[in-house]
Specification:
Elements: E1 4-9, H1 20-31, E2 35-40, E3 56-63, E4 69-75, H2 85-90, E5 93-96, E6 114-116, H3 126-146, H4 148-166, E7 183-190, H5 203-221, E8 225-229, H6 233-238, H7 250-259, E9 260-265, H8 275-282, E10 286-289, E11 307-308, H9 312-324, H10 326-344, H11 346-359, E12 360-361, E13 364-365
Parallel strand pairs: 1-2, 4-5, 5-6, 7-8, 7-9, 9-10, 10-11
Antiparallel strand pairs: 1-3, 3-4, 12-13
Helix pairs in contact: 1-11, 3-4, 5-9, 10-11
């Protein structure tokens, strides 16, 4: 008998790309017999059901034998100060991707129920893919046939998310044993943003840090550095000499990522961690990253799971240590592989979330 019964509410504006790791984990738990899974879609405001926003996943969960239903929300916003007040107040447990100190949520009176979700990255399973296509795809076709102009004007960004999701690999494509021999190269593939595109963060400041890092690593390591700036129109216009020399299509990039020994996590938005760290962990890579800026269900320790840097020159020094130190490389790779199996593999991650939701009282594990 399944341990949990889970009802997932899919909204018509659901960003399936950002939520794909969650859907993959639930589908895997269903396949393993741990979860009885039901998908409810599309949910609209007039329905007697919660309506998730684009970057929120809502579910009702029952644990077998207890007769208690818990309303669980998972918030996938980039910023720590972005959340849906109405959802957070209606949820028994609210997991937040960019979680910081619980007291930051006191203004909405819910700090006791907000818990860290952890790192996120996009992946999929065949089951979750076809369920999403069946649930939301039919609704999108209906809306398009009803009013094509209105549909295209209001759903453009969500269609873009679907397009990216369709090219997202199966979660096992990211996985790799720490015993696999990797090329002694350093990988950083990043993008720059147009001014005003990341408000309230400064796109100019983030761009400057990323460009400096690319230039410094390329100068220090030559052909042992792979990557650069993703060739968007803005990057081509402003940074033509810093564009990547590697594939950018997701399947090709994942193959490249699996082969590289060292993955660099570049400067990102304030108090947020991008997808690349999760992808590197799944591939049992050596990571060189800015100090982790969010609270995780289990900490990633500098020196145990990754090497931290604060300046471009420090990043070069950390990479040199890894290229020269086999024992250090092996230790980091074993540790991140263990972290992945326990904390980030999709089914393990979602099982942890469900267990924590039921074993937590007022934000404290019972």
């Amino acid at each position: 008998m399944a341990t949990y019964q889970v009802k997932v509410y899919l909204g018509p504006r659901q960003n399936v790309y950002h939520a794909s790791h969650i859907f993959s984990g639930l589908d895997e738990l269903c396949r393993q017999g741990e979860v009885a899974l039901r998908w409810v879609a599309p949910v609209r405001a007039q329905d007697k059901a919660p309506v998730p926003g684009p970057l929120t996943v809502l579910m009702d969960v029952w644990r077998t034998g207890e007769g208690i239903c818990k309303s669980i929300a998972i918030d996938l916003h980039d910023r720590h100060d972005e959340f849906d007040v109405s959802v957070i107040r209606d949820s028994d447990v609210y997991f937040k991707r960019t979680f910081h100190r619980p007291e930051e949520y006191a203004p909405v009176g819910t700090s006791r129920q907000v818990l860290p979700f952890g790192l996120n990255y996009a992946c999929r399973t065949p089951g979750s893919f076809w369920r999403l296509c069946g649930c939301l795809g039919r609704e999108y076709v209906r809306q398009f046939l009803s009013d094509p102009a209105q549909f295209m004007s209001s759903k453009g960004e969500y269609m873009h998310a679907w397009w990216i999701y369709l090219h997202t690999p199966h979660f096992t494509r990211f996985e790799q044993s720490p015993s696999v021999s990797l090329r002694p190269v350093i990988l950083l593939q990043t993008r720059v943003w147009r001014p005003g595109e990341l408000l309230p963060d400064s796109a100019e400041e983030i761009n400057a840090g990323r460009v400096q890092l690319v230039r410094t690593l390329r100068h220090a390591f030559g052909r042992r550095f792979v990557g650069g700036l993703i060739p968007t129109d803005y990057a081509r216009e402003h940074y033509p000499d810093d564009l990547t020399n590697a594939p950018t299509r997701k399947p090709d990039y994942i193959r490249l990522c699996r082969r590289a020994l060292i993955g660099i996590v570049g400067p990102g938005r304030a108090r947020s961690e991008g997808f690349s760290m999760g992808e590197y962990i799944a591939g049992s890579k050596c990571m060189v990253a800015k100090p982790v800026s969010i609270e995780l269900p289990q900490k990633l320790e500098d020196g145990a799971h990754y090497l931290a840097y604060r300046t471009a020159d420090e990043c070069v020094e950390r990479c040199s240590r890894l290229l020269e130190g086999a024992a250090l490389r092996d230790r980091l790779r074993r540790n991140v592989h263990d972290y992945y199996r326990r904390q980030l593999q999709p089914a393990a991650r979602m099982k942890n979330c469900l267990d924590r939701a039921f074993d937590t009282v007022d934000g404290v594990a019972s």
